[in-house]
């Protein structure tokens, strides 16, 4: 079957085509559905299909377009991470006991997408409890990377990244606390934006069967994924803004404009190494190439700065605070084992594994002291962003790796240039932005020598999401962006 001319277009391009009546919403929806039916047997990105309602919404969108209505997402097919509540569809988070849970109401972000005219095609696959950079569970099986079916698409928004790379619509919704937006974007060669903490309200992105009420979950965010940087801004504008049930009673969102609109005006700090976890040659090479090209365009590029916070101490702090949050939901037997293990740790053991174990057994007093340390880090970042507009650094240390479903993540290993490292230590790279709630935009930078996507994250100042997003757009415009996988040369 011939490849549709619309399958890999951006949301911005498709919106223009819809307005110009070059294509209809029903045609775009049918095209995306046909691609899912043709290819998803191999990829398994879409774990819950909602095609009948999608076609109905597409017909309504075409009616609105015919009446001259204009909405941000009108007529655009959208996929949604399985962890978001969509009324009438299962929300399981990959937990088998919750396989029959169906919420009665949409998540707030889903309501906003629908109100903006977006057409929900279905839900995308996740790891159990959203707790891995691979996307597999007993309910829905394993999602594969469209660039190499034997490798992970990333996680926990791995189904969303694979869907985008496969041409299943131009937009998807995901979430992030340990890189779950940025890591799958990196592994599948697409774009994602981790918003500033609490910029997008998370009501309805809720573990089943808990009620969908306004709640701040430490460091956790929801955000947009796409095949183009400009599309991230389009979807972010729809998702962002306070929840009308709480902060929205007294506040409204007014984000600052991007600091600059030309590459020559940006001041960028480029980091490609971590004292505890290096990036491999493919990732470092892509960053080096980008830094050189930015410099040639007039961007002021620095490779080090005394203002940059202590990466090692920040990573240790992140591991403790992350596992303090996640560990609250672990079964009693796991926590009991963690307490025994933590009690046996030497005070001199500052490995990231040890810090994660300590975090699982945190007291509230210990958390309060670490929260003070985090406030100090935020102050350091504010000082840094007086001199720089953005920090460019790795998202993960290697391109996508083969599936590894061994049950204990602490015993898994990731090979970086011939040396094995502890699998969860990879948290250090996404954690650089997560810990202090900073916005970070994941962008692709082409393919490795093995044909796998590589990319970077662009970290910006707190609540200045438009600055890294604009830099991402400028880089895409000058140097290119998403490349479709070869398996989709149909």
From TrEMBL:
It comes from the Bacteria. One of its GO terms (molecular function) is amidase activity. Signal peptide: none annotated. The keyword Hydrolase applies. Residues 27-467 form the Amidase domain. Its EC number is 3.5.1.4. Keywords: Hydrolase. PANTHER family: FATTY-ACID AMIDE HYDROLASE, FATTY-ACID AMIDE HYDROLASE 2. This is Amidase. It comes from Bradyrhizobium zhanjiangense.
């Amino acid at each position: 079957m011939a490849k549709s001319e619309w399958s890999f277009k951006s949301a911005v391009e498709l919106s223009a085509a819809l307005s110009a009546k070059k294509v209809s919403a029903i045609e775009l929806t049918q095209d995306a559905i046909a691609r899912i039916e043709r290819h998803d047997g191999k990829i398994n990105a879409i774990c819950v299909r909602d095609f009948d309602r999608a076609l109905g919404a597409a017909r309504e969108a075409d009616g609105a377009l015919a009446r001259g209505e204009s909405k941000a997402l009108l007529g655009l097919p959208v996929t949604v991470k399985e962890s978001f509540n969509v009324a009438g569809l299962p929300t399981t988070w990959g937990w088998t006991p919750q396989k029959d849970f169906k919420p009665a109401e949409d998540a707030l972000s889903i309501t906003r997408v629908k109100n903006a005219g977006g057409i929900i095609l279905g839900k995308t696959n996740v790891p159990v409890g959203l707790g891995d950079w691979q996307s597999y569970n007993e309910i829905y099986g394993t999602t594969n990377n469209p660039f190499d079916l034997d490798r992970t698409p990333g996680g926990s928004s791995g189904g969303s990244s694979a869907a985008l790379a496969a041409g299943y619509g131009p937009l998807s919704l995901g979430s992030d606390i340990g890189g779950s937006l940025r890591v799958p974007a990196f592994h599948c060669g697409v774009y994602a934006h981790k918003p500033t903490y609490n910029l997008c309200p998370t009501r309805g992105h809720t573990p089943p069967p808990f009620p969908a009420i306004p709640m701040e979950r430490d460091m956790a965010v929801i955000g947009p994924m796409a095949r183009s940087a400009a599309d991230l801004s389009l979807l972010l504008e729809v998702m962002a803004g306070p929840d009308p049930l709480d902060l929205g009673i007294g506040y409204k969102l007014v984000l600052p404009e991007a600091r600059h609109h030309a590459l020559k005006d940006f001041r960028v700090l480029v980091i490609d190494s971590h004292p505890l976890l290096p990036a491999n040659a493919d990732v470092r090479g892509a960053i080096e190439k980008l830094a050189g090209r930015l410099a040639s365009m007039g961007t002021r590029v620095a490779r080090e700065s005394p203002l940059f916070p202590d990466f090692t101490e920040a990573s240790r702090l992140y591991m403790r605070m992350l596992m303090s949050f996640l560990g609250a939901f672990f079964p009693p037997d796991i926590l009991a084992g963690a307490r025994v293990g933590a009690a046996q740790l030497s005070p001199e053991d500052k490995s990231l594994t040890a810090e994660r174990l300590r975090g699982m057994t945190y007291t509230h007093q210990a958390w309060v002291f670490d929260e003070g340390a985090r406030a100090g880090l935020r102050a350091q970042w504010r000082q840094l962003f007086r001199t720089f507009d953005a920090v460019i650094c790795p998202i993960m240390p290697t391109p996508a790796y083969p599936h590894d479903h061994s049950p204990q993540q602490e015993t898994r290993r990731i090979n970086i240039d011939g040396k094995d490292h502890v699998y969860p230590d990879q948290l250090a790279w996404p954690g650089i932005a997560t810990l202090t709630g900073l916005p970070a935009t994941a962008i692709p930078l082409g393919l490795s020598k093995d044909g796998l996507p590589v990319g970077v994250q662009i970290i910006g100042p707190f609540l200045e999401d438009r600055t890294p997003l604009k830099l991402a757009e400028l880089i895409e415009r000058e140097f290119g962006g998403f490349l479709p996988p070869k398996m989709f040369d149909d």
